[in-house]
Write a structure and sequence with these properties.
alpha+beta, Phosphorylase Kinase, domain 1, Transferase(Phosphotransferase), domain 1, 6 domains, six-stranded antiparallel sheet, four-stranded mixed sheet, 15 helices, about 30% strand
Length: about 625
């Protein structure tokens, strides 16, 4: 769609991004002259209710928010079947690109970036919107350093209790929360978890969990602990590590409960106010001291030694008896302390040496071998089975916790085992539309591929005529079904000898389109000026609906409107091709094409011509790349 003008306003200059449901272009708003970002729903999803709903949801979410750290919505609409959103254009890079370039981001800068992300999320959460797809790819870093959160395409209103099909695990697997991984609804703390993952990646240069498949990563979000930040990046202050790890707690109750709360903690960490920061609620309680345990009292409580001594004192006994009693009590206390210390030491040795075990590497093992290996290591294997398109049945494809993690004997290790490819019966998709066929095949993991469109007077346009493999065949996830689709049928009318506007209208009425790039035949007879000389395909030809008809039009050079423009050619080491198109509002056509050598003038004059006088937009392309556009009046 590049080079197209959308809604007679937005000139799509270049494609700058591709997502799962939309394509993003840099465009020029012809009313203001400003660069904007235009997100266009992929054409194949225009009739898909789920994707249209997500697209509309992004527009609704964006319309509720205006914030300096959020990419703001400027316009929304439709151009024919094309649904589009117009957003502010951010000149810069994604945070993911910045991390790849720098490896790691310094802790103070990473914290400041995180605070700005949290500021944007606090605004979204206050407006009842959960982002659900926070990741570095959706954080834009402006060239001047401003941070913008983008892509609310799978955002969900916080008060919505219904999950649509496929929503439960939407988002990017490396960044989504344990509750998203387990198919539960996301809430404010789910976005907090994702921010923690982004902060972890900025500080260490890598994501906390990685694996060979999305399932592998999801299982780690559920069961594994990330490597401590200080073990990868020792320069990161403990206070910032504390904030990051608290945001990534598995249990949502133990995370920060709002974006504002996490941002406040980061500011305290940066300013050194660590005494005011809240502790992580999952930390183990401090063990009592040996002396306190011997006396049966908490270590923080003072030992009432003087009172105890008073109870054993008697004015009728001699002073040395009092001293002996004290020595006896002290000896008893020291003995108890030594015994307790030995007990604690024995328990520690037992826990760390005798009762602990290291998790073996189970991936690739046959399930029965893996179970025996786990049992020999003193672990309890829990088996989860899933289909896998390439790994044979009975093979371990994932484990949690990961290799070499230290556990207590008797702890559980989760082994994900392949059930092999899922075999299923292929349904019939003949006689239905391609959109309906995709809806039928998508739950099976099967892809629809249109291999041919044919002329058909019997089958409605865009309905499937035949399929390969046939219905009833066995298929598995990842297979492709090739289909032949009806293109409908139309007869090409005879438009030769007619004026160009009449010919174009007649073609449209017949279900065809006129090629905007006209060809011309120069003549001297003024009465033929603007009349169709020939057409391709020829009249009465059977064609598919929507077929493009190319017209050749007579023109008298002396009757053409023209104007001379001056080009602005860039420096070039070799031969440069130049193409200029002209658009008067009824279609764009090539008005000039030529080549310029490296030593040619950088500002040559070129004459543009059109059938009728008026105001036109001309666009200049160097080596088939759009360079600039201007207005010109042809007389």
């Amino acid at each position: 769609m590049s080079e197209k003008i959308l809604a007679d306003r937005y000139h799509l200059v270049e494609q700058i991004g591709v997502g799962g449901m939309a394509i993003v272009y840099r465009a020029i708003d012809q009313r203001t002259g400003h660069n904007v970002a235009v997100k266009v729903l992929r054409p194949e999803f225009n009739q898909d209710a789920e994707f249209v709903s997500r697209f509309q949801r992004e527009a609704e979410a964006a319309s509720k928010m205006t914030h300096h750290n959020i990419v703001n919505l400027l316009d929304v609409g439709m151009d024919g079947e094309n649904r589009y959103l117009v957003m502010e254009y951010v000149q810069g890079k994604t945070l993911k690109e910045v991390i790849k370039e720098k490896g790691r981001i310094s802790p103070p800068v990473a914290a400041q970036i995180t605070i700005r992300i949290l500021s944007a999320l606090q605004h979204a959460h206050q407006n009842g919107i959960i982002h659900r797809d926070i990741k570095p790819q959706n954080i834009l870093v402006h060239a001047d350093g401003h941070i913008k959160v983008a892509d609310f395409g799978i955002a969900r209103m916080a008060n919505s209790s219904t999950l649509t099909k496929g929503d439960s695990v939407m988002g990017s697997v490396h960044y989504f929360s344990p509750e998203q991984a387990s198919g539960q609804a996301a809430d404010v703390t789910s976005d907090i978890y994702s921010v923690g993952v982004v902060l972890y990646e900025m500080l260490t240069g890598r994501v906390p969990f990685d694996g060979d498949s999305p399932v592998a990563v999801a299982m780690q979000h559920l069961h594994a602990r990330p490597a401590p930040i200080e073990s990868i990046a020792p320069e990161v202050p403990p206070a910032i590590c504390h904030v990051c790890m608290m945001a990534m707690e598995k249990n949502p109750r133990y995370r920060y409960q709002s974006a504002r709360e996490m941002a406040a903690e980061l500011r305290m960490a940066l300013e050194g106010r660590t005494d005011q920061m809240q502790p992580r609620l999952v930390e183990k309680p401090v063990q009592p001291s040996p002396a306190a345990a011997a006396q049966g009292k908490p270590s923080s409580a003072p030992a009432p030694q003087e009172q105890g001594a008073g109870r054993y004192a008697s004015p009728r006994r001699k002073p040395h008896r009092k001293a002996n009693v004290w020595q006896w009590i002290l000896s008893l206390a020291l003995t108890a302390g030594v015994i307790y210390g030995l007990y604690v030491g024995v328990v520690a040795i037992y826990e760390k040496v005798v009762n602990s075990t290291s998790v073996p590497d189970f991936v690739g093992m046959e399930v029965t071998v893996a179970q025996r290996t786990a049992q020999r290591a003193g672990l309890n294997p829990e088996i989860v089975e899933i289909n896998h398109p390439t790994v044979s049945a009975g093979t371990v494809i994932l484990q949690a916790p990961e290799v070499d993690t230290t556990l207590r004997k008797g702890d559980s290790v989760v082994l994900t085992v392949s059930k092999g490819p899922a075999s299923q019966t292929l349904p019939s998709v003949t006689g239905i539309s391609t959109q309906d066929a995709m809806a039928v095949l998508q739950p099976l993991g099967v892809t629809l591929m249109v291999t041919e469109r044919v002329i058909s007077s019997d089958v409605q346009a865009d309905f499937i005529i035949s399929q390969t493999p046939e219905a009833g065949s066995q298929c598995k996830s990842g297979d492709i079904v090739q289909v032949t689709v009806s293109g409908g049928m139309a007869f090409v009318p005879n438009v030769t000898g007619q004026a160009l506007p009449e010919a174009q209208e007649k073609l449209t009425g017949s279900g065809l389109t006129a090629n905007a790039n006209l060809t011309y035949a120069d003549v001297e007879d003024a009465s033929l000026h603007g009349v169709v000389a020939s057409q391709v395909p020829a009249a009465d030809t059977q064609v598919i609906l929507g077929t493009q008809v190319t017209l050749t039009v007579y023109r008298v050079p002396e009757l053409l409107s023209s104007a001379v423009i001056i080009l602005d050619l860039p420096q070039n080491d070799g031969l440069m091709s130049v193409r200029i198109t002209v658009d008067g509002g009824e279609g764009e056509y090539t008005a000039y094409q030529g080549e310029f050598a490296a030593d040619a003038s950088r500002h040559p004059e070129v004459e543009l011509k059109a059938q009728e006088p008026g105001d036109y937009t001309y666009r200049v392309y160097f080596n088939d790349k759009f360079a600039y556009q201007h207005q010109v009046t042809l007389k």
